[in-house]
Amino acid sequence: MSQVQSGILPEHCRAAIWIEANVKGEVDALRAASKTFADKLATFEAKFPDAHLGAVVAFGNNTWRALSGGVGAEELKDFPGYGKGLAPTTQFDVLIHILSLRHDVNFSVAQAAMEAFGDCIEVKEEIHGFRWVEERDLSGFVDGTENPAGEETRREVAVIKDGVDAGGSYVFVQRWEHNLKQLNRMSVHDQEMMIGAPKKITKRSTATNVRKPLTSPALI
Protein backbone atom coordinates (compact mmCIF):
# COMPACT_ATOMS: atom_id res chain seq x y z
CA MET A 1 0.00 0.00 0.00
CA SER A 2 1.34 3.43 -0.92
CA GLN A 3 2.31 5.79 1.88
CA VAL A 4 -0.18 8.61 2.44
CA GLN A 5 0.75 11.96 3.98
CA SER A 6 -0.32 11.95 7.61
CA GLY A 7 -2.61 14.98 7.32
CA ILE A 8 -4.97 13.61 4.66
CA LEU A 9 -7.08 11.05 6.54
CA PRO A 10 -7.46 12.24 10.20
CA GLU A 11 -10.86 13.33 11.54
CA HIS A 12 -11.98 15.61 14.37
CA CYS A 13 -8.71 17.44 14.93
CA ARG A 14 -9.11 20.43 17.22
CA ALA A 15 -6.64 22.89 15.72
CA ALA A 16 -4.86 23.56 12.44
CA ILE A 17 -2.42 25.88 10.72
CA TRP A 18 -2.40 26.65 7.00
CA ILE A 19 0.69 28.20 5.46
CA GLU A 20 0.70 29.26 1.80
CA ALA A 21 3.91 30.32 0.11
CA ASN A 22 5.62 30.95 -3.20
CA VAL A 23 8.85 29.31 -4.29
CA LYS A 24 11.94 31.53 -4.33
CA GLY A 25 14.73 29.08 -5.04
CA GLU A 26 15.31 26.10 -7.30
CA VAL A 27 12.95 23.13 -7.26
CA ASP A 28 15.79 20.86 -6.12
CA ALA A 29 16.04 22.93 -2.94
CA LEU A 30 12.27 22.67 -2.50
CA ARG A 31 12.44 18.90 -2.94
CA ALA A 32 15.21 18.60 -0.34
CA ALA A 33 13.35 20.88 2.07
CA SER A 34 10.22 18.75 1.77
CA LYS A 35 12.23 15.68 2.78
CA THR A 36 13.77 17.56 5.71
CA PHE A 37 10.33 18.65 6.90
CA ALA A 38 8.99 15.10 6.62
CA ASP A 39 11.80 13.90 8.88
CA LYS A 40 11.11 16.67 11.42
CA LEU A 41 7.40 15.87 11.33
CA ALA A 42 8.08 12.20 12.08
CA THR A 43 10.06 13.27 15.16
CA PHE A 44 7.14 15.35 16.44
CA GLU A 45 4.65 12.55 15.73
CA ALA A 46 6.76 10.17 17.83
CA LYS A 47 7.21 12.74 20.63
CA PHE A 48 3.52 13.69 20.92
CA PRO A 49 1.51 10.55 20.02
CA ASP A 50 -1.58 11.72 21.94
CA ALA A 51 -1.79 14.86 19.79
CA HIS A 52 -2.74 12.78 16.72
CA LEU A 53 -0.55 15.06 14.65
CA GLY A 54 -0.66 15.13 10.88
CA ALA A 55 0.58 17.38 8.11
CA VAL A 56 0.43 17.77 4.35
CA VAL A 57 2.73 19.53 1.92
CA ALA A 58 0.95 20.26 -1.37
CA PHE A 59 2.07 22.04 -4.53
CA GLY A 60 0.37 24.25 -7.08
CA ASN A 61 0.13 23.21 -10.71
CA ASN A 62 3.26 24.90 -12.06
CA THR A 63 5.39 23.91 -9.09
CA TRP A 64 4.26 20.30 -9.29
CA ARG A 65 5.07 20.16 -13.01
CA ALA A 66 8.58 21.41 -12.26
CA LEU A 67 9.05 18.90 -9.43
CA SER A 68 7.67 15.92 -11.32
CA GLY A 69 8.98 16.70 -14.78
CA GLY A 70 5.41 16.96 -16.01
CA VAL A 71 4.48 13.43 -14.94
CA GLY A 72 1.22 12.65 -13.12
CA ALA A 73 -1.47 14.77 -11.44
CA GLU A 74 -3.50 14.99 -14.64
CA GLU A 75 -6.41 16.70 -12.86
CA LEU A 76 -4.31 19.37 -11.13
CA LYS A 77 -5.09 22.84 -12.47
CA ASP A 78 -4.77 26.46 -11.39
CA PHE A 79 -7.98 27.93 -9.98
CA PRO A 80 -9.23 30.47 -12.57
CA GLY A 81 -11.44 32.59 -10.32
CA TYR A 82 -15.19 33.05 -10.85
CA GLY A 83 -17.65 35.93 -10.76
CA LYS A 84 -16.82 39.57 -10.20
CA GLY A 85 -14.61 39.11 -7.19
CA LEU A 86 -16.96 36.62 -5.54
CA ALA A 87 -14.54 33.71 -5.92
CA PRO A 88 -11.15 35.30 -6.61
CA THR A 89 -8.07 33.24 -7.30
CA THR A 90 -5.26 33.41 -4.75
CA GLN A 91 -2.96 30.85 -6.33
CA PHE A 92 0.29 30.08 -4.49
CA ASP A 93 3.01 27.50 -5.09
CA VAL A 94 3.07 25.62 -1.79
CA LEU A 95 0.53 24.72 0.90
CA ILE A 96 1.61 23.40 4.30
CA HIS A 97 -1.34 22.13 6.35
CA ILE A 98 -0.70 21.09 9.96
CA LEU A 99 -3.44 19.61 12.16
CA SER A 100 -3.75 17.90 15.54
CA LEU A 101 -5.56 18.02 18.87
CA ARG A 102 -3.04 20.56 20.22
CA HIS A 103 -2.37 24.04 18.92
CA ASP A 104 0.94 24.25 20.78
CA VAL A 105 2.21 21.18 18.94
CA ASN A 106 0.98 22.60 15.63
CA PHE A 107 2.87 25.82 16.29
CA SER A 108 6.07 23.91 17.01
CA VAL A 109 5.68 21.96 13.77
CA ALA A 110 5.08 25.21 11.86
CA GLN A 111 8.35 26.55 13.26
CA ALA A 112 10.06 23.36 12.12
CA ALA A 113 8.55 23.81 8.66
CA MET A 114 9.96 27.32 8.41
CA GLU A 115 13.38 26.02 9.44
CA ALA A 116 13.19 23.21 6.87
CA PHE A 117 12.04 25.32 3.92
CA GLY A 118 14.07 28.38 4.86
CA ASP A 119 14.86 30.75 2.02
CA CYS A 120 13.48 28.51 -0.73
CA ILE A 121 9.94 29.78 -0.04
CA GLU A 122 8.33 33.13 0.75
CA VAL A 123 5.31 32.88 3.06
CA LYS A 124 2.30 34.75 1.70
CA GLU A 125 -0.37 33.77 4.21
CA GLU A 126 -0.59 31.97 7.55
CA ILE A 127 -3.94 31.12 9.13
CA HIS A 128 -4.53 29.46 12.51
CA GLY A 129 -7.84 27.65 12.86
CA PHE A 130 -9.77 25.82 15.57
CA ARG A 131 -12.78 23.56 15.77
CA TRP A 132 -15.60 25.23 17.69
CA VAL A 133 -18.07 23.71 20.18
CA GLU A 134 -19.89 20.65 18.76
CA GLU A 135 -17.73 20.99 15.63
CA ARG A 136 -19.77 23.96 14.43
CA ASP A 137 -18.40 26.76 12.31
CA LEU A 138 -19.10 30.39 13.23
CA SER A 139 -22.41 30.31 11.36
CA GLY A 140 -23.66 27.87 14.00
CA PHE A 141 -23.92 24.93 11.59
CA VAL A 142 -22.12 21.64 12.22
CA ASP A 143 -19.27 21.49 9.74
CA GLY A 144 -18.44 18.48 7.60
CA THR A 145 -21.63 16.46 8.11
CA GLU A 146 -21.37 14.99 4.61
CA ASN A 147 -17.69 14.09 4.87
CA PRO A 148 -16.94 10.35 4.76
CA ALA A 149 -16.25 8.84 8.20
CA GLY A 150 -13.63 6.23 9.07
CA GLU A 151 -10.10 5.91 7.74
CA GLU A 152 -10.83 3.26 5.13
CA THR A 153 -13.84 5.12 3.74
CA ARG A 154 -11.89 8.35 3.62
CA ARG A 155 -8.98 6.58 1.94
CA GLU A 156 -11.37 5.20 -0.66
CA VAL A 157 -12.61 8.64 -1.72
CA ALA A 158 -9.55 10.84 -1.09
CA VAL A 159 -6.47 8.83 -2.01
CA ILE A 160 -5.35 7.91 -5.52
CA LYS A 161 -4.98 4.14 -5.73
CA ASP A 162 -2.91 3.36 -8.79
CA GLY A 163 -0.26 4.66 -11.13
CA VAL A 164 2.47 7.21 -10.60
CA ASP A 165 0.19 9.26 -8.31
CA ALA A 166 -0.67 6.34 -5.99
CA GLY A 167 -0.89 7.53 -2.39
CA GLY A 168 -1.42 11.14 -3.44
CA SER A 169 -4.49 13.32 -3.31
CA TYR A 170 -5.86 16.67 -4.48
CA VAL A 171 -6.63 19.62 -2.21
CA PHE A 172 -9.01 22.45 -3.05
CA VAL A 173 -8.39 25.35 -0.67
CA GLN A 174 -11.31 27.69 0.02
CA ARG A 175 -11.91 30.45 2.55
CA TRP A 176 -15.48 31.56 3.12
CA GLU A 177 -16.54 34.94 4.50
CA HIS A 178 -19.97 35.08 6.16
CA ASN A 179 -21.90 38.20 7.12
CA LEU A 180 -22.95 36.83 10.52
CA LYS A 181 -25.09 39.85 11.46
CA GLN A 182 -27.12 39.43 8.31
CA LEU A 183 -27.29 35.65 8.76
CA ASN A 184 -28.51 35.89 12.34
CA ARG A 185 -31.36 38.22 11.32
CA MET A 186 -32.79 35.33 9.30
CA SER A 187 -35.02 32.62 10.76
CA VAL A 188 -33.42 29.24 11.38
CA HIS A 189 -35.55 27.80 8.58
CA ASP A 190 -34.31 30.39 6.09
CA GLN A 191 -30.73 29.83 7.22
CA GLU A 192 -31.14 26.10 6.60
CA MET A 193 -32.55 26.71 3.14
CA MET A 194 -29.58 28.94 2.30
CA ILE A 195 -26.84 26.75 3.79
CA GLY A 196 -28.45 23.53 2.63
CA ALA A 197 -28.23 21.69 5.95
CA PRO A 198 -30.15 21.38 9.24
CA LYS A 199 -28.85 23.59 12.06
CA LYS A 200 -30.05 21.82 15.20
CA ILE A 201 -28.19 18.54 14.78
CA THR A 202 -25.46 17.98 17.36
CA LYS A 203 -23.63 15.01 15.86
CA ARG A 204 -22.45 14.17 12.38
CA SER A 205 -24.22 10.81 12.54
CA THR A 206 -27.65 12.43 12.94
CA ALA A 207 -27.28 14.50 9.79
CA THR A 208 -28.18 11.54 7.58
CA ASN A 209 -31.50 11.13 9.44
CA VAL A 210 -32.74 14.63 8.61
CA ARG A 211 -34.63 15.50 5.45
CA LYS A 212 -32.28 17.68 3.41
CA PRO A 213 -33.44 20.78 1.52
CA LEU A 214 -32.93 20.87 -2.24
CA THR A 215 -29.99 23.23 -1.77
CA SER A 216 -28.07 20.73 0.35
CA PRO A 217 -24.55 20.09 -1.00
CA ALA A 218 -25.28 16.38 -0.65
CA LEU A 219 -27.96 16.67 -3.35
CA ILE A 220 -26.05 18.83 -5.81
UniProtKB/TrEMBL annotation:
Keywords: Iron, Metal-binding, Oxidoreductase, Peroxidase. GO terms for molecular function: heme binding; metal ion binding; peroxidase activity. It comes from the Bacteria. SUPFAM superfamilies: Dimeric alpha+beta barrel. One of its GO terms (cellular component) is cytosol. Residues 134-200 form the Dyp-type peroxidase C-terminal domain. Residues 5-131 form the Dyp-type peroxidase N-terminal domain. Its EC number is 1.11.1.-. Its cofactor is heme b. The keyword Ubl conjugation does not apply. It holds the Pfam family Dyp_perox_N. It is an enzyme of class 1 (oxidoreductase). Belongs to the DyP-type peroxidase family. This is Putative peroxidase.
